[in-house]
């Protein structure tokens, strides 16, 4: 079995592939099948010889070592899987060679390049491309059923399974490990019970590590970008789209137990129920995030579609940025609780918009009143992603969640790193891939540190600059599309912020009850909240400065002949005051909220002139400011030139550029 072969073969020198003509060799190219001297496979006919030998004289070919020493082209000739009749042991090293043109058109079980491989075997360092594999159940691009290790194997083409256990690399991993493998094939499972995965259809015992799926998946039940069902998946990425028609669909796994360090960017659609950006069902998901849109019928979650049937469910250090839409029960993290087991959500964040006819929540869609109380710790969601953190059920749990503003700088960094990692030029198992994945994990840790800062500061995080009165941020403080209104050319460049002194006795409590802003906000079903800073300037609960602006900022159609109508001023609207540092040239943003309209802002209502819109009001001394900060008895100090100045008038270091007005985004 170790001399020259006698089969007829053709060699393509242009592509360096040995092209199969359908013949079967009688010997290998060399070796004796030991670990020290493995059998050498140089031609496609010699690979067919291995397949024939395992089927006919198993004892001569099982428990042997093999090495592929050339690229092979199976030329689309119908292939008999190696081990389709008998289960066997094998130690196969592809030496990073490629086998292309694999063709299997079958209605039988155990279809793949290899068939049923027994325990303690390994298949590694192999690429299979331009392939087509079809069969009933236990269908895998590389191997149908595996007990052992699959390492650095890659498959592309198309896989069709008529029943279940269908995977891009392996149909069923009965025990062992799949690591560093990738699939780029389209996978279809036509039966309502089909269990499909981009890497493995079903993992009954074993783990999947550092694997990536790029292929589209079309299935019905218990299907995922990495595995249809698996107990342990870590550090894997799915970028392939998933279409599921029945239930239990996940961006990483349909039905899982432990998932850690995984990313999904593949959209999920098809009208299925119990769908999660990471897992359809799982017990524990950690350090994982979904960035893809999810559409389905009901019970959709950005991370998990449903809690475990048998155990408590833990979700930790996860986030979702994907838009989620369904009929009922949708949550940015998970759609609902269980009636029997506990849910623990820690250090999680939702950024995606949630849409559902019933039971939609930015974090949790529904809480069963008869179930155990969910334990939510350091959980956050982007304001506006849903009406509230918990959509339906027990309202008192809403106090466990925190709304925050936009942490886009960290998300942008994270997205750019992920783009590098999921690029076609980077293999996850490679040194570069692992370094990028570690970089993502570090960025995620920074991300949650930012969230803790956001919560501690009432929602705005740590400012880039904190003066005696002024907090400046290095990025926008509101998520959403803002209307940009440039500073009027006649307004002061640097002394643009002035005090808006309320009447004596108009303390924070009075302002929150009796002001025009309070009247309008209360009429809209909200509550105006006020806090007093150390210099007596007023802010809301999030630390946004209550300000007065000219009427044209809030109502662009306002003219100098019109009286101010409070209904047009949209009190409570959030604003970013955009300034540039005089000395460092950097852009900064000051968080503000509209609490008053300036009467003395003629001619066009964009800065303080002292000329009133209402003819019945007296003309006063104008100061040229664009923004007035609301408070009473605002403190003053003596500057370096001996001038007595208000603490909100000392803005000479920052030039006003514009106001960014977020129409429809309010603080109540």
What's the short story on this structure?
The protein is mostly beta strands.
Walk me through this protein's architecture.
Among the domains are: 414-456; 465-666, no CATH class. α5 (508-514) crosses α6 (516-523). The strands form 7 sheets. The protein has a 36-stranded mixed beta sheet that branches. The longest helix has 26 residues, at 431-456. The protein starts with 9 loop residues before the first strand and ends with a strand. The protein has 7 helices and 55 strands. With 668 residues, the protein is mainly beta.
List the helices and strands and how they pair.
Layout: E1 10-12, E2 17-19, E3 39-41, H1 44-56, H2 58-61, E4 64-68, E5 71-73, E6 90-100, E7 103-104, E8 114-135, E9 139-140, E10 143-161, E11 166-167, E12 170-179, E13 182-183, E14 186-189, E15 196-197, E16 200-203, E17 207-209, E18 212-213, E19 217-224, E20 227-234, E21 237-238, E22 242-250, E23 253-260, E24 263-264, E25 268-269, E26 273-276, E27 279-282, E28 284-286, E29 289-290, E30 294-295, E31 298-301, E32 304-307, E33 313-316, E34 319-320, E35 324-331, E36 334-336, E37 343-350, E38 354-361, E39 364-366, E40 375-382, E41 390-392, E42 401-404, H3 408-421, H4 431-456, E43 465-466, E44 471-472, E45 483-486, E46 497-501, H5 508-514, H6 516-523, E47 531-532, E48 538-539, E49 545-549, H7 551-554, E50 573-581, E51 587-597, E52 627-631, E53 636-638, E54 644-646, E55 654-666
Parallel strand pairs: 2-5, 3-4, 4-6, 5-6, 6-8, 7-8, 8-10, 9-11, 10-12, 10-13, 10-14, 11-15, 12-16, 12-17, 13-18, 14-19, 16-20, 17-20, 18-21, 19-22, 20-23, 21-24, 22-25, 22-26, 23-27, 23-28, 24-29, 26-31, 27-32, 28-33, 29-34, 30-35, 31-35, 33-37, 34-37, 35-38, 36-39, 37-40, 39-41, 40-42, ...
Antiparallel strand pairs: 1-2, 43-44, 45-55, 47-48, 49-52, 50-51, 50-55, 53-54
Helix pairs in contact: 3-4, 5-6
């Amino acid at each position: 079995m170790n001399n020259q072969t006698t089969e007829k073969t053709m060699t393509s020198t242009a592509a360096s592939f040995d092209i199969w003509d359908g013949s079967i060799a009688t010997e290998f190219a060399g070796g004796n099948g030991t670990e020290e001297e493995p059998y050498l496979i140089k031609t496609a006919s010699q690979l067919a010889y291995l397949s024939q030998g395992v089927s006919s004289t198993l004892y001569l070919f099982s428990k042997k070592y093999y090495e592929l020493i050339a690229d092979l082209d199976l030329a689309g000739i119908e292939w008999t899987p190696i081990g389709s009749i008998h289960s066997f042991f094998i130690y196969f090293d592809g030496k990073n060679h490629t086998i292309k043109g694999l063709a299997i058109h079958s209605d039988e079980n155990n279809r793949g390049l290899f068939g049923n491989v027994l325990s303690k075997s390994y298949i590694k360092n192999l690429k299979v491309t331009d392939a087509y594999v079809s069969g009933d159940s236990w269908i895998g691009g590389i191997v149908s059923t595996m007990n052992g290790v699959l390492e650095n194997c890659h498959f592309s083409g198309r896989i069709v399974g008529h029943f279940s256990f269908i995977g891009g690399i392996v149909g069923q991993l009965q025990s062992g490990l799949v690591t560093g493998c990738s699939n780029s094939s389209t996978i279809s499972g036509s039966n309502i019970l089909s269990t499909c995965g981009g890497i493995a259809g079903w993992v009954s015992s074993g783990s999947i590590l550092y694997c990536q799926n790029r292929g589209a998946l079309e299935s019905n039940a218990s299907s995922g970008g990495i595995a249809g069902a698996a107990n342990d998946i870590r550090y894997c990425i799915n970028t392939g789209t998933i279409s599921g028609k029945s239930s239990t669909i996940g961006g990483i796994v349909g039905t899982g137990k432990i998932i850690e360090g995984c990313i999904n960017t593949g959209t999920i659609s098809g009208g299925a129920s119990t769908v999660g950006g990471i897992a359809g069902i799982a017990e524990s998901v950690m350090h994982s995030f979904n960035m893809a849109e999810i559409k389905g019928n009901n019970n959709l979650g950005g991370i998990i579609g449903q809690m475990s049937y048998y155990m408590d469910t833990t979700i930790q250090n996860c986030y979702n940025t994907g838009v989620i839409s369904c009929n009922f029960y949708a949550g940015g993290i998970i759609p609902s609780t269980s009636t029997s087991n506990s849910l623990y959500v820690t250090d999680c964040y939702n950024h995606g918009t949630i849409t559902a006819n019933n039971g939609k929540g930015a974090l949790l869609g529904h809480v069963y009143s008869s179930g155990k109380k969910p334990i939510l710790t350091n959980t956050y969601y982007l304001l506006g992603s849903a009406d509230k953190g918990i959509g339906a059920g027990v309202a008192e749990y809403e106090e466990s969640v925190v709304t925050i503003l936009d942490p886009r700088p960290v998300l942008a960094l994270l997205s750019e790193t992920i783009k590098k990692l999921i690029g076609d030029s980077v293999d996850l198992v490679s040194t570069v891939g692992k370094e990028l994945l570690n970089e993502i994990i570090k960025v995620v840790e920074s991300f949650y540190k930012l969230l803790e800062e956001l919560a501690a500061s009432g929602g705005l995080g740590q400012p880039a600059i904190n003066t005696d009165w002024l907090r400046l941020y290095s990025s926008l403080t509101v998520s959403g599309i803002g209307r940009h209104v440039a500073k009027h050319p006649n307004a002061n460049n640097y002394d643009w912020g002035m005090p808006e002194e309320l009447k004596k006795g108009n303390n924070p409590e009075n302002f929150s009850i009796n002001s025009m802003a309070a009247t309008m906000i209360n009429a809209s079903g909200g509550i105006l909240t006020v806090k007093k800073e150390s210099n007596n300037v007023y802010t809301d609960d999030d630390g946004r400065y209550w300000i007065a602006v000219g009427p044209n900022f809030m109502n662009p159609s306002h003219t100098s002949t019109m009286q101010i109508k409070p209904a047009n001023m949209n009190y409570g609207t959030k604003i970013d005051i955009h300034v540039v540092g005089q000395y460092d040239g950097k852009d900064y943003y000051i968080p503000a909220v509209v609490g008053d309209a300036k009467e003395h802002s003629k001619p066009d209502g964009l800065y303080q002139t002292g000329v009133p819109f209402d003819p019945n009001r007296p003309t006063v001394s104008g100061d040229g400011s664009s923004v007035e900060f609301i408070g009473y008895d605002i403190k003053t100090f003596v500057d370096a030139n001996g001038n007595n100045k208000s603490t909100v008038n000392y803005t000479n270091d920052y030039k006003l550029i514009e106001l960014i007005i977020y129409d429809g985004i309010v603080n109540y």
